């Protein structure tokens, strides 16, 4: 059967080395018994989908394979990697939009925008290898959400191949369009279960002309929340990033990065302001603001190098924590007012169960979103996952108590599908299943992901 | 049967004067044979819905009854007016959100935000009587979309009564939440066909500290589009409004408003910049910008009174055009690059058919959205609608040729449902009907609206 499909494709649509596509980013999931294809045109995607639909073959779409929840792992069927759909289609300056193939690497979209003297704001750790289609399918977040929103907010229009091979194309830059149910938002965040995104029209912005970055040491999360409220009211949309880092996380990252942090404190906040007009006094305003409000244990980056160092400390947390071994990670969000209570109460209960546990807490406090990663230094890496259920039960119970969500910006994938009923009602899941059944009655697209059985 | 329902409700939930709820804003549609109810609690809404579901009685939800497409008109069944659900529930300063009942009048939400030293940006002509629930159900647009988005972009969470009486409540301020299909966006813009919105959590912003308003005369729409591109790249998110007005529309409004316009030209643009930081030089920057780029036929408001006058000229266009008699109105949007061609080509074809036609063109050029209203001065008002199909055929054909949409910010309602297939594919409409069938299998909520039969 695969022979027949291979025969339909050009040789360059069948990669010889399939290893990079089979193992997931966290090395927890491996694709098995599947044919890896890399269609080089939208028509080829449609051809493959039609072929599979006629023969009941499942299709698992895959972008840059940088997901953290096992969302692009195939058991059998076709693993359809989008990397060859990588054209920047065009930039429209009047409408401030860029239209791209889904397989464009995020960094290349940022670069194409910059070349047109515009700014595409989505920014996250894997931007050098993740792809726009995957960013859309997972509703990616990252570092600039506070100012520009998540990927969902940046999508003007989509081009999608449906499970029957039909192409749905809405790539025109319509800034207003209220014509019955907004289906675009179903595909965004659907993790490839409803359609394969092949292209998108995205919003562009004027490039920032001034940037100011501060690192602030504080003694509690309550104090960070207070600072957030003050800075948001003072600087409004200029506030681009407001990142929380625990002292433990900072120390790990500092060691890994060979950078000595200038500030010591129980908790840390990285603040970045940007302005689309050149503004010489923004740094002074920020310094005055911090001083006046009593946040004196802080430094402002005085050069681009100093700014890079502050960001390196923040961005290397993920890499540096690998030294602690395997971890049970949580990508959670909650109302900002609830974060301090959550960290205190959840941490206390975890330590009660696991007195030697290391907890790495950092994340996008400005969005109420936390990376909450737990390590068991005295448990062998291979055995850590035996504790996953117990730890998740505790962390998610506290998250839900604070009216939070179990998936902020990494999605549901394979890892969390059995948790979906904790945040979505039976009526909602029934509706989701009806939507899935309407678009994909054969259940061929990204099987065993997202929705519980 | 209605006797039984009346008995379930308190006396103050049954208005004695029902006339204001029965005739629509444009006086084109009248509700008939229906019971008007005004539930005073979410529980009461659920009770009514459950009563109706058990007896196959249709329910037409209604907010401020300011819609322009006959979306809240009932033929039989229950007309459920939300006006009594009018509490501001609470303001959350850390998360920058406000939670309100759906029946709150838009102006009251703006005022509650201002009282908390925050800004709620949705602003439109009927803000003194339209309601938040209706704004959400229709994805309202208005004057500040360029900077803050449409209503869809302002909704953090919704509380909705489903057609079976079940309550779906997601009012927590989650700024990031990627847990399978985003159903919130189905209810936004669904015009009451999927659920009755009873409450919402909305985004707040820092109040603008500086405002600068300019009126610019130009000789062509091309020139306006060029100006838009320049001003967007220069002032970025500070650009709050960019309104296009034809000379004919301006003259009508000037006469109606008793204000003498300072600028004469074929076309006019109203530009408003706002800044969340006090900035003394914003007016100078705007004046320099206009001068440097050759847009010298312009005035900057030098006082709040002058600013009000400029806005009055813009906002009174709708009221002033009533002097021309009944009209066939179009609420369309298209890529901004296409607006000039549309106005030229569509106007030419209309004038060929109707040499005496008056065309009032104005709208939110910054969003590619136009109010395109046609008048036949030599046809009696009552007979104008006989030409509706012919005129719509021409206008919508040109709109679609420019990859535009037939409904930008007023919705589909009764008026445009037969046009929906021109902008949504059979696969999309089939999916919408499946969604409707799943949530409302008895087809009880807002029947004969939105989706074609």
Automatic annotation (TrEMBL), chains A, B:
UniProt keyword list: FAD, Flavoprotein, Oxidoreductase
E.C. number: 1.1.2.4
Residues annotated as domain FAD-binding PCMH-type: 29-207
One function term, GO molecular function aspect: D-lactate dehydrogenase (cytochrome) activity
Cofactor(s), names only, from the UniProt record: FAD
Enzyme class label: oxidoreductase
Superkingdom, natural source: Bacteria
Pfam families linked to this entry: FAD-oxidase_C, FAD_binding_4
Family matches, as InterPro entries: FAD-bd_oxidored_4_C (IPR004113), FAD-bd_PCMH (IPR016166), FAD-bd_PCMH-like_sf (IPR036318), FAD-bd_PCMH_sub1 (IPR016167), FAD-bd_PCMH_sub2 (IPR016169), FAD-linked_Oxase-like_C (IPR016164), FAD-oxidored/transferase_4 (IPR051264), Oxid_FAD_bind_N (IPR006094)
Keyword Zinc-finger: no
GO BP, one annotated term: respiratory electron transport chain
Family: Belongs to the FAD-binding oxidoreductase/transferase type 4 family.
Protein known as: D-lactate dehydrogenase (Cytochrome)
Organism per entry: Kingella kingae ATCC 23330
Lineage, highest ranks first: Bacteria, Pseudomonadati, Pseudomonadota, Betaproteobacteria, Neisseriales
Gene that this polypeptide is encoded by: dld2
């Amino acid at each position: 059967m695969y022979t027949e499909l291979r025969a339909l494709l050009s040789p360059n649509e069948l990669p010889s080395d399939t290893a990079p596509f089979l193992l997931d980013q966290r090395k927890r999931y491996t694709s098995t018994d599947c044919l890896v294809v890399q269609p080089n045109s939208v028509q080829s995607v449609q051809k493959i989908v039609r072929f599979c639909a006629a023969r009941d073959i499942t299709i698992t779409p895959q972008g840059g394979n940088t997901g953290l929840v096992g969302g692009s792992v195939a058991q059998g069927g076709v693993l359809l990697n989008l990397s060859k759909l990588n054209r920047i289609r065009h930039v429209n300056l009047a409408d401030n939009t860029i239209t791209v193939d889904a397989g464009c690497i995020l960094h290349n979209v940022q670069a194409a925008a910059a070349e047109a003297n515009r700014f595409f704001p989505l920014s996250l750790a894997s931007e050098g290898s993740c792809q726009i289609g995957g960013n859309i399918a997972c509703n990616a977040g990252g570092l600039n959400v506070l100012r520009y929103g998540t990927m969902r907010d940046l999508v003007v229009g989509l081009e999608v191949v449906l499970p029957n091979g039909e192409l749905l194309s809405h790539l025109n830059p319509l800034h207003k369009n209220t014509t019955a149910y907004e289906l675009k938002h179903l595909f965004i965040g659907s993790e490839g279960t409803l359609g394969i995104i092949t292209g998108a029209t995205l919003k562009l912005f004027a490039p920032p002309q001034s940037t100011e970055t501060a690192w602030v040491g504080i003694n509690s999360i309550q104090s960070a929340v207070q600072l957030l409220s003050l800075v948001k009211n003072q600087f409004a949309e200029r506030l681009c990033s407001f990142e929380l880092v625990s002292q433990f996380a900072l120390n790990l990252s500092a060691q890994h990065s060979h950078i000595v942090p200038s500030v010591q404190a129980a908790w840390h906040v990285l603040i970045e302001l940007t302005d689309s007009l050149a503004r010489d006094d923004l740094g002074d305003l920020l310094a005055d603001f911090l001083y006046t409000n009593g946040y004196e244990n802080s430094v402002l980056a005085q050069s681009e190098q100093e700014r890079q160092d502050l960001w390196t400390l923040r961005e290397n947390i993920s890499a540096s924590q690998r030294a602690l071994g395997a971890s049970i990670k949580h990508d959670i969000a909650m109302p900002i007012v609830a974060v301090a209570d959550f960290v205190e109460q959840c941490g206390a209960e975890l330590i009660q169960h696991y007195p030697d546990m290391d907890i790495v807490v950092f994340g996008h406090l400005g969005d109420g979103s936390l990376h909450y990663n737990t390590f068991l230094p005295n448990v062998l890496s291979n055995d850590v996952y035996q504790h996953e259920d117990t730890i998740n039960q505790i962390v998610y119970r506290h998250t839900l108590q604070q009216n939070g969500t179990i998936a902020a910006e990494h999605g549901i994938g394979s890892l969390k599908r059995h948790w979906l009923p904790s945040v979505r009602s039976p009526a909602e899941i029934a509706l989701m299943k009806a939507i899935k059944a309407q678009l994909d009655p054969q259940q061929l697209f990204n099987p065993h992901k997202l929705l519980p059985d």
